[in-house]
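Before the break, one more example. Copy the sequence into your notebook; we will annotate it together after we see the structure.
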Amino acid sequence: MKKLLFLLIAIYPLVVFSQDNPLKPLLMQVQKEGPAGWQKLQQKISAGKATPVDYLKAALIQGESEGAMGYLTTAINKLPATSPYYKEALLLRSNAWMREVNIDSAMADLQRVRAVDPRETAALINLSYLAGTNGDYRAAVDYLQVAATIDTADANIFANMAYYYAEGEAYDSAALYGAKALNYTKEAKLTGTIMNTIGYAQGMSVSRERGLAIIRKSLEIYPENSFAWFNIGRIYMAMNNRDEACEAFRRAKSLGGVNLTAEYLESYCQ
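Here is what the structure looks like once it is written out:
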């Protein structure tokens, strides 16, 4: 699974790619050339002499700025679909659309990636995320089921499946895939996140007390998880314990879960 991370380095943002990503040599070249290379690229673009690869390099330099989108679009329009850069450029642009909350455009780019490479798990995972953002948890799970047949030991895929099953109120499946995800990770933050999902599923199906206990155990592993406190609040709401629920929602908000808690705090905790 590819993970893209934008970092601010020196005077421009750059992207960290996996070792097998065909854009990595371009990134290394951009890093080596520095500001002087950027000036040369600008001159080539202004003179109408830039190649599709030049536009990709310009996009890498621009990172998350608005200018990167234009460079990516030009590169995509000029590259043949058979180019190893074409799919990667689409993935980058889909990430940019996602940052702008332009879900339709992001999904369109990701579907174009799948048309070129149906086994690209990055596209499947992001399509799942976008479907979940729209509240279509069934579609979110379906994308991840396909990804799981390609990468059979990725804890993140199973953790996301557990989450979307829980949000779709398929609590037995959430617990099943949460347990499967735990088998493939020892990383503390992800372990805490998975336990939180399992706890919520258990709390909304098997036993409120059992669910709360599991989530509180998850907070010992990942104390900064605002979503764990949000789930504690949701379980207390199901128990008609508004005071404890509101306290949990406030804890979630204090840890950064502002969007998670806004509706609940406004509706129940004034």
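The beta strands are 5-9, 12-16. The chain is about 75% helix and 5% strand. Try to locate both features in your own notes.
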